[in-house]
Amino acid sequence: MDAIEVRQLTKDFGNTQALRGASFSVREHEIFGLIGPNGAGKTTALRILSTLISASSGKAQVFGFDVARQPEKVREILSYLPEDAGAYQMLSGLEFLEFMAGFYSKDRAEMKRIVDEGRKISGLGERLSDRVNGYSKGMKRRLLIARALMMKPRLAILDEPTSGLDVIQSFHVRNMIREYADTQGVTVLLSSHNMLEVEYLCGYVALIDGGVIIAEGTPEALKERYGGKNLEDVFMEVTKSE
Amino acid sequence: MSNLWALIVKEVKELVRDPKILIGVVLMPIIIFPIMGAAIQVSQESVERAIMGASFAVYTDDKGFVTEALLGYLYTNNTVVPIEAGSLEEALIAFKATDSSALIYIPRGYHANVTLGQRGVLLVYANLRNLNMAETQSTNVVTSLINVYNYYFSITKIRNLLEQTSSVGTPEAVRSPIGIRYASILKGNVLDVSPNAIFSLVMGQSIMLPIMVMMMVVFAIQMAATSIALEKEQKTLETLMTLPVSRFTILAGKLSGSIVIALAGSVSYLIGFGFYINSAFSFVPEVTTMNIDDVGIGITPLGLALVGVVIFVTLVSALAMALSVAVFADSVRSAQSFTGALITPIMIPAIVLMFSDIEMLPQSFQWIMLAIPYTHTIIATKAAFLANYAVVVRSILFISVWTVVVLYVAAKIFSTERIITARFTFGDLGKRLRLRRHAS
Question: Which domain holds residue B403?
Fold first, then answer.
């Protein structure tokens, strides 16, 4: 069974058509990259899969659950990290992780295990006791990544996971994502503008533009098909021909 | 730990740790009201001191035993500044040079008029140097002194006349032949208490409750709107909405968290206001020793329980309304502007019904007022004091129906993508208006 199955998905916001029949599938345990220019429909697709908004037409399933008809089931197995997500400013980093872990744990012991995992992923150490309003942008992002991965969801949807992070922090986050996919069996759907990041992380990539998927395949296959040295060349080539 | 409890704890932590809310809602009433009360007390005490130490001047142009008797009364137990002068003009100049604010002038002919059974007229000059309260009060002190003298003087004269004419009756009855005694019928019982005394008692106690309820509702509305706007401003709403917890639980968490802070704000307001009343009006003597239970309008345990239900349904509906509206705001500031529009229909019934009854209003206005659900909160709390439980239950039913409607709307908004996509700013309104103008 595919982790994600999207068929002929459309979404209208008034007169604007954000998605115009997008279709793609994500296999279980895979890191799948959804790339495209600004306004291509990436975030809209991720928001539909995360049950935040509903599609105008088409089908979207997560591990066999229909996102429109069974949103509660979908929310139990996924973790979504929005691009410009924030954390509760008046809580400490630890309180934030504890609050979030509470929704995924049956008892205190399980909650502690999840929070300890979150501590490890964030790498924030003692600073976790400080209130979030004193964190730098990078620290906040690390906390949010930790929040998204600590409960080892079956599916992690990460919108621009390294946005706002410096080179070292981005490296740390990328390794975390890879480790969780490889060792914990987490399926990852991510979107990014950073083509090197996508090439490094993703086993499969779909290029979206104008609300439809215009190319997809493994990074190697795409480079070969479009004659590019890297995904950036592929991206430029594909969007130019479109 | 249940999901709802976790959400409530988070809400309370977020709101109470925000300095704007902690200071503005919880601490400010406790600090500001006692300061206001103390300021009024200091000013009142200084006026009192000024009145107590106030002297008045006396100048007389008249002679005779009637005048002497009046002077004897004025000079006893009062600080009097005697003015020695050849004429009234000189006397006024001398008076202006003193610290006194009032001058009693006994003109020539006072004694003669009184002895001839005519009215003796005195002149009181008030020297208004600074136009403050103490100056006018010293004139009042002089007036009171003369009124007391006037009363006993007239009673003595009437007694003498009654004796001379061998008439029956008492001097007091001749002076004021008709007296009034008040009684009030309350809840079918006749009480030897004036309606004014009962009203001031009810004003002081049972009216305060609905006002406090309304204050709490206003606080809660602000809290709820702030809470949802904070989620949008901090970009946490999307994460919250993808958690494995029902949208209704999230809504209930927000409602409950806001109620907790609103309760804290109301208690703080109550304590602060209590300090204010105690200190600001400490100079006012107790007019009545009556207790609200003595006149049979104390609230019964059943009435109190019903008031609790009224408060609960009122709060839930107001909060659901605030959350539904705040969803359209993109920041805390705009959420607070939106809630301003909600607070008006809540405060209008509270203010109107504080001084009058719904039946006393013009028919059309009555219908408008009755259509506002929060009018029934005031009607119900007042009725609970008078043990009109049928009215209380009717009001509870009305507010409950409204609560269900508003809660349904809020739950709908929370369960759809509107919670994420809804946006409304005053800029949008301006743009729409401009577009309409262009189109026409």
Answer: 3-38+194-433
Query: CB B234 to CB A80 under 8 A?
Result: no
Domains of chain A (ranges, CATH numbers): 4-85+154-241 (3.40.50.300)
B418 and B282 inside one domain: yes
Dump pLDDT digits (tens) for B317-356: 888 888 888 888 888 888 888 888 888 877 888 788 877 7
What are the pLDDT digits (tens) for B348-377?
887 888 777 788 888 888 898 888 888 898
**Are B8 and B138 members of one domain?**
no
Residues B313 and B429 placed together within one structural domain of the fold: yes
Question: Sheet holding A57-62: strands in order across?
Answer: A16-26, A4-13, A57-62, A65-66
With CA atoms as reference, the chain B residue closest to A51 would be: B242
Closest CA relative to residue B146, chosen from B95, B199, B73:
B73
Which residue type sits at A155?
Answer: L
Residues of chain A with C-beta less than 8 angstroms from the C-beta of B234: 86-89
Is any Cβ of chain B less than 8 angstroms from the Cβ of A167? no
Q: Is residue B184 part of a domain?
A: no
Contact list in B for residue A76 (CB cut-off 8 A) is: 244
Q: Are residues B34 and B58 in the same domain?
A: no
Cβ contact B70:B121 at 8 Å:
no
Residues of A in contact with B242 (CB under 8 A): 50-52, 75, 78-80
Buried b (16+ CB within 10 A) or exposed e, A20-55: bebebbbeeebbbbbbbeeebbbbbbbbbbbbbbeb
Query: B287 pLDDT band (50/70/90 cuts)?
Result: very low
Residue B111 and residue B20 share a domain: no
B234 part of contact set with chain A, CB < 8 Å: yes
Do B132 and B62 belong together in one domain?
Answer: yes
Whether residue A51 contacts residue A71, with contact meaning beta carbons closer than 8 Å, is answered with yes
pLDDT tens per residue, range B371-415: 888 889 888 888 887 788 999 999 999 999 999 999 899 888 888
Q: Does residue B439 register a pLDDT over 60? A: no
CB contact under 8 A, A91 and B1: no
ipTM entry? 0.92
Q: How far is A234 from chain B (nearest CA, A)?
A: 32
Residue of B nearest to A145 (CA): B239
The residue ranges of chain A whose pLDDT is under 50 are none
Q: Which residue has the higher pLDDT, B162 or B214?
A: B162
